[in-house]
Write a structure and sequence with these properties.
Elements: E1 2-7, H1 12-24, E2 29-33, H2 48-53, H3 56-75, E3 84-88, H4 97-106
Parallel strand pairs: 1-2, 1-3
Length: 134
């Protein structure tokens, strides 16, 4: 499985932290240079999402994820990897990550496109809120 991590060029510390955590789980992350919101100012760069919400940061996040998806499609033309994991550089890999990913993969429905993993307001270093996969 390829693991892609979205990271702003100037966020070296965040990249090193997530990279080392993933390597500890026997995963080799691929760095994707995030789109910086400061450089989204030309009208041609604006998408419908930006026009609706007018938020450059949201637009940059969206553009960064599109960039990863395009990279995955380009890299997987030969179907070498059936699955890819996309993370942002502030992700906190849970304990026994590979075990949980393998369990999740075994239970994926036949017809699926994206499985969203994450937590909103319930994440911590102790992983106390991440027991759903146990």
């Amino acid at each position: 499985m390829d693991v892609y991590v979205i990271n702003l060029d100037h966020q070296h510390e965040k990249w090193n932290i997530i990279k080392n955590k993933l390597i500890a789980h026997n995963l080799n992350p691929i760095k994707i240079r995030a789109v910086n919101s400061y450089y989204i100012n030309d009208k041609s760069d604006k998408t419908t999402l930006f026009k609706m919400f007018g938020n450059q940061r949201l637009e940059a996040i969206y553009a960064s994820h599109i960039k990863v998806w395009k990279t995955i499609l380009k890299n997987n033309k030969n179907n070498k990897n059936k699955y890819s994991l996309i993370l942002e550089d502030d992700a906190i890999p849970i304990n026994k990550l590979n075990k949980h990913l393998n369990k999740l993969i075994k239970n994926i429905p036949e017809k699926w496109d994206i499985i969203l993993l994450g937590c909103i307001g319930c994440c911590n270093e102790d992983n106390k809120c991440n027991n759903i996969l146990d």
